[in-house]
From TrEMBL:
Keyword field contains DNA-binding: yes
Protein name: LysR family transcriptional regulator
Family the entry assigns: Belongs to the LysR transcriptional regulatory family.
GO cellular component: a single term: protein-DNA complex
Amino acid sequence: MDTRFLESLLAVVDHGSIVAAAQAQALTPAAVSQRIQVLERELGQTLLERRANASSPSAACRDLLPAMRRIVGQAHELRRNADPAVAQGVFRLGAVSTMLTAAVPDLLMDLRRRAPRLELQITPGSSAALYEAVLAGTLNAALIVAPPFPTPFGLQQHPLRSEPLCLLVPQGHPARNAEEAFADLPHIAYDPESWGGQIAARYLADRGLMPQVLCALDGLEVISDLVASGIGAALVPEWAGLKKARPLPDGSGYQRRLVLLTRVTHERAAGRQAIIASLTGTLATSSLPDD
């Protein structure tokens, strides 16, 4: 049974005549009439009581109307879920700060093209907090640093990019490695409690370095600004957009992995898939500064 024929029948019921239904559906009256005749043959029932300038549902049609409306509504929902261009609703996405500036503008442009009616709500936060929000179901997905532990059943990581550890020193400072930098500069630490900061802390521990800590921050942009002011040095991942960073000789062994964290679901809603396609496509292909 073609649900478009049911839509034509419902249009006649709602508008009171075949002519009015045809106008509402941008069809000819003959086409609407033919559709209803097909339905009557399939169901073995007279569905309309036809008069000169009006039509009304028969008793059999009135009994079937609730089921018909459900079928048509479900067909509309199916089409929305199958076609990103008509996907609607809200997708709640979390993102760490560096991803907000590096990824979100391109993501919004790509998503507008893929699913123009979908609304994206973005929540900033730390990787740990956003992880918990996805786990709890208050976020649909999050752009975070890969957790330093196995994710439980029910969560899925989509790899996006890896960022090697690098050195930030004030402009003109001659340091070529961490040992030389922290010999005369205090450490502006990437918060060792954060998942990304744990990587920098491990780098220092592996080399037995214990520089004087000036402060510890989770905001990489703020760390970069403080280093540029000349008050210290830092070890940070080489995030997209970072400028004037110095590669570490062995920084590739200490990489911050960025992932898109989602819940494992059998849902195939077009809006959700459009978001994931935009994220993985935009971010996985985005360029990093040369090592």
